[in-house]
Amino acid sequence: MPQGPITSTINNMADVWEAYRDELDGVERQVRTNLDSSVALVNTVAAHILNSGGKRIRPLLLLLSARLCGYTGRDHHQLGSLVEFIHTATLLHDDVVDDADIRRGQRTARKIWGNQISILVGDYLYSKAICQIVDFRSQGINEVLAEACKKMAEGEVLQLYYNGNPAMPELEYLKVVEHKTAGLIAASCRMGAILADATEAQQDALFRFGQYLGMAFQVADDTLDYTANGERLGKTLGQDLRQGKATLPLLHLLRHCSEQDRQMIIDRMETRTLTEEDLGRLIRLMEEFGSIAHAMDRARTYVASAQQELSQFEDSTAKRALSVAADYMVTRDR
Q1: How far apart are CA 242 and CA 270, in angstroms?
Q2: C-alpha–C-alpha distance, residues 86 and 97, integer Å
Q3: Residues with Cβ < 8 Å from 289, sequence gap 6 or more?
Q4: Measured between alpha carbons, how far is 327 from 108 in angstroms, rounded to an integer?
Q5: Sign of the C-alpha dihedral, residues 83, 86, 88, 90?
Q6: Which residues, in sequence order, are CB contacts of 5 under 8 Å at separation 6+?
Q7: Could you read off the pLDDT of 251-306 as tens digits, one per residue?
Q8: How far, in Å, CA of 146 to CA of 255, rounded?
């Protein structure tokens, strides 16, 4: 889509998806083309999760960042598909680590084919992406993606280290979010700018935009785990606590609730159990002590910081779409 004045039709994410449908269809076609392993089971397992309804946020942000900086080519189809491969690899691994049975409303790959296959197919997707990304012959793209992959692994280990620990410091929680989620989103935005031969200042601004966006996305997602429509979200509510994860709304509640309620929460974290009655009680406590509001306020603060990073760019359709995408991080599934 060409640059130019902001189009009046881009007011929400539905408008963004529609405006860039052809572009994202190109990414989808490339995703399918890249699933070309000679081992049929690899393609089957990867396709199971790739076709399960993901919104392709990272390829979209890569595309919009490139267009924002004046890029008119089509290499974002391939690069976006490889970013999605890396993201999908992390999901396959995460589901094994978390013993997850459901993702996006359907059975996880580990539930169908087992943990070993899930891990190995995740490894394949990582390897496939790295092998094909070198074809861009861009040191900048190689460096930013390698750093993002390293951070994601570190974030996973840090999260596992604090698993089941209600004393996890909030700063450590935010570090996990920055590494696990924000890293790849920020990398996607910078890679879009690199495709466009943007200035270093523009690359840095879009990297920070993506980082703030990733923080907002994950903080909001962690809050939705207690407040969303579970069927629409595609997962069981309260799943984070059942897996021993202390996320921002829970950490806030643990600092403000009574000792009796705190001990109840700690017990549920340690035993990895949570009844519907427990969940209802937990949500009422979060509402009483403002824990949900606290987490969403933090997410909105990150969105505001992301929006500020766009201020140096001229008005365009891509800029408006990025702004709408930022707001979407804290309004989705509500």
Answers
A1: 9
A2: 17
A3: 252, 253, 256, 257
A4: 29
A5: negative
A6: 315, 316, 317
A7: 999 999 999 999 999 999 988 888 999 999 999 999 999 999 999 999 999 999 99
A8: 37
Catalogue all structural domains in the chain, each as residue range(s) with its CATH number: 13-322 (1.10.600.10)
Residue 247 in 3-state DSSP?
coil
Single-letter amino acid, residue 93: H
Q: Round the CA-based radius of gyration of the chain to a whole number and report it.
A: 20
Query: pTM score > 0.90 for this model?
Result: yes
Please tell me the distance from the alpha carbon of residue 307 to that of residue 311, in angstroms, as a whole number. Answer: 7
DSSP for 93-160? HHHHHTT--EETTEE-HHHHH-HHHHHHHHHHHHHHHHHHHGGG--HHHHHHHHHHHHHHHHHHHHHH
Q: Which residues are CB-contacts of 129 (< 8 A; sequence separation ≥ 6)?
A: 82, 83, 85, 86, 89
Digit-coded pLDDT (tens) for 82-135: 999 999 999 999 999 999 898 888 999 999 999 999 999 999 999 999 999 999
Residue whose token pair is 């989620």? 181
Distant-in-sequence, close-in-space partners of 159: CB < 8 Å, separation ≥ 6? 176, 180, 245
DSSP 40-83: HHHHHHHHHHHTS----HHHHHHHHHHHHTT--SSHHHHHHHHH
Do 330 and 217 meet the contact criterion of CB atoms below 8 Å apart? no
Structure-block tokens of residue 214:
């990733």
